[in-house]
Amino acid sequence: MKSVLFGILAWITLSIPIFAQKPSHPYLFFSKERLATLTNRIKTDTAIAHNWNDIRQEADNLLTNGDRGDGQARTKIEWLALAYLMTTEKKYADKVKGILIRLCSQPTWSNQEMMNRNPPWTSDLQTADRCWSVAIGYDAIYNTLTKDERKIIVDGVVRNGIKPALNDWVLPETRIHTLNSMGHNWWSACVDMAGIASLAILDDQPEAADWAETVMKASEEWMRFSGDQLQAKPRTFDRTGGMYESVNYAAFGSSEYLFFRLAYTNTFPGKKQPDLGALKKLDDFFAHVSYPRTGPLYSLNFGDGELTVSADRPVKLLYALGSDNPNDLWYMNQLTNGQHREGLFPNTPIGLVYQPDMSKAPKLPNLATSALFADMNWASMRTSWERDATMLGVKSGYTWNHSHADANSFILFHKGEDIIKDAGNSWYGSKDYPEYFFQSQAHNVILFNGKAQPKEQQYNGSPLSGKLSELMDAGDMKYIMANGTGPTSANFSRNFRHYLWLDKVILIIDDVKAYETGKFQWLLHPGGESKKVGGDISIVKGKSSVLVRPLFPETLVQTGFDHDFPEKMKLTEVTAPKARDPQHPTELYYSIDYPEQVKQTKFITAIILKESPDDKDLPIIERLHSETMQGVRIKQHGKISEIYLNLLADGRIMHLNSVNQFNGWETDAYLFGITYPDHTDGQRGSGSSPTVAGPDEVNDYFMAYGSYVRKNQETVFSSLSKVFMMARKDGNKLNLIVQGQPLINASFRFPKTPDTFILNHQPLKPVYEKGQLRVRVENGN
Length: 781
Fold this sequence. Notes:
Residues 71-215 form the Heparinase II N-terminal domain. The protein is of the alpha+beta class. Among the domains are: 376-618, Beta-galactosidase, Chain A, domain 5 (Distorted Sandwich), CATH 2.70.98; 621-781, no CATH class.
């Protein structure tokens, strides 16, 4: 009989829906286990204790401030909630109760401006924020509430928060939004905050479990949304991590979902949830677009981003959800408490409760020094992960909403500063936001007759996206290609920009063509004090200093007598609004103008990275040119680099290959470069005879869009298709990068079988025949 009863009881237990098997309040974020761990850490960790004291002090301050339901106390309800749970002092619970009763007694939380739309939007960020407040407060003080008080709160959050969100955003009978129109950060905020509120009221609302499950399933669709062609909407998340809306909104949108996922996990431990997909790589994205420095961590602020934005929330939430990525600890260790308004810093309640053991944080992340996010078309390249190193951020891709008209633009961080910057952004309601900050003029791009991307793209998007591709990183030689033709196609029929980084010189090579003759302008937004010095533009901020030197189609006038040199580039200072600085409402940027009216041209611009503002040990740069070539020779650190732009390879000829000769080198490459030891006088400057280096003298090769290289009747490289290649020789070691096609069978000249052979960053046993390495690259496409 006992065994029969035991079997019946076991069957009943297993038959109980999983929604009934949740822990008792509090369970969303401040679980009993987490609070016990925090209590122990306060006793043994002085930093944790200090942060807890700050949180409790703030909670005490809130007891006498923000008495209205929409005041400061509501927006910081987590402080009061944690103070109550850690101390059990009734004064904190009473404060939370008062806030919730007042808030949930209101007839509506809807924003009147949104209600005036057709159809009315009953759910927005305001209702989402209030759902969060109620969920946190209700979960924390649940056991102090009477039945009537619970009813007021539950009825209010259902009426004003949960149902409006589900009705507007999810449920088929009433939904007015779609992932195609509003599937960005608003979607996750409005829907997932309603999901958290549903989890908070499971004990008191029979439908709450179904609502939470509905949110979970809908959120999976949001995560996996792949965009559309008809209205040119991008994917929600880049497949390698990242979100196109800017670091700000990527952090906000992803963390709203991750908050819900963590609350769901805590509520239903062990219940299977949808795979995180691209979100598993989101933490490394935030690291790759960050710039560690002496001072608050910076991030690439393309679009509506901010320099000091923190992705602490999504990174810490991913870690709490089980990520074992040590790079997460490194990232969190770079942040300063309060450096951005949205963060789970350890001096915030949830941030403290979920603060990892930072003693395990690595000194540097285990990440490559370059990264390309090919769906959203962002890239970063850096000299190292040390603080105050040099980092170049590049963007092309999509334009709409928070993603500005900045195809092919760049930001340069050097010695702790954004020395060449993005102009930034302003309050969205200001006239300067749509007229300037969003538009091409606010970015480091090229204009034709004063235009690049059409202004309408802010609202209608860019149906033809820009593209970044062919990232290669071989140490102090790096490259990426940007194609902004699509977004700028109203004014450009060709708009390519190549970034080639050679030690202390970054070459920016622009290949532009319009539909008619006109004037091209190269825009530069300095991030420090700037002035013209000879043929350079000098930019200095603190210890950071660079020189920007136009080389082609012409140089700047060395003197101040521009009228004596009408063929030279013209430097124009442009006054523009300054981002978020009421004391200094305007600033200057530069337009470097080619004076000739042309339909097609090439720009080659050198950015020289200085060790300090007083650095005099600078690279020597010499212009090289012929009818079919433009190029530069750079002398630096005992090396000479020659870079050639093949004018025959820019699409001007059809069916005939772009075969050309550069200083004895024969190639069909669009861009070709070599680096070899400098055995000449260290002071040799322009006007000297060129050095003729052969394959045995060359240490580094660079090729963009080429199929072969020959010298002295010897084939140095060969591939049937035009590919992208970097090669670095170090004694009998070879590091080779070859890419650009799904299948490449190539050969590379090497004097003997290399002791060490690295192909596309992977060690490989060399296949060596008759002085040539045989290489096969297959990427499965």
